[in-house]
């Protein structure tokens, strides 16, 4: 049980880091806009990709880990 929980903890901890990254990036963009920053307008997605270029594929992989194969019919493809 301890091994299983430690295996789940690592992706969950990474999820917390990503959550902090998204919130900090959105906050920084909002602050810059409120302060009247003249730099070009960038989306949160663009800023996050600059800070963590593999964010989207890593997030998709973590989602796949937590959601699993989806159904019993899909389970066999994970063991082929």
In short:
This protein has 80 residues and is mainly alpha-helical.
Explain what you see:
There is one protein chain. With 80 residues, the chain is mainly α. It is built from four helices and no strands. It has helices at 2-34, 44-51, 55-67, 72-75. Helix 1 (2-34) packs antiparallel against helix 3 (55-67). The longest helix is centred in the first third of the chain and has 33 residues, at 2-34. The protein is elongated and about 55 Å long. The model has no long low-confidence stretch (mean pLDDT 79).
Order of helices and strands: HHHH
Contiguous uncertain segments of 5+ residues:
none
Q: What's the total helix number?
A: 4
User: Given the C-alpha coordinates, what overall shape results?
Assistant: elongated
């Amino acid at each position: 049980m301890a091994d299983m929980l430690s295996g789940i903890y690592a992706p969950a901890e990474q999820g917390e880091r990503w959550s902090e990254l998204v919130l900090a990036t959105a906050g920084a963009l909002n602050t810059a806009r409120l302060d009247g920053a003249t730099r070009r307008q960038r989306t949160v997605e663009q800023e996050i990709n600059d800070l963590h270029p593999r964010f989207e594929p890593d997030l998709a992989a973590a989602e796949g880990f937590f959601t699993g194969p989806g159904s019993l019919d899909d389970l066999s493809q994970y063991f082929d």
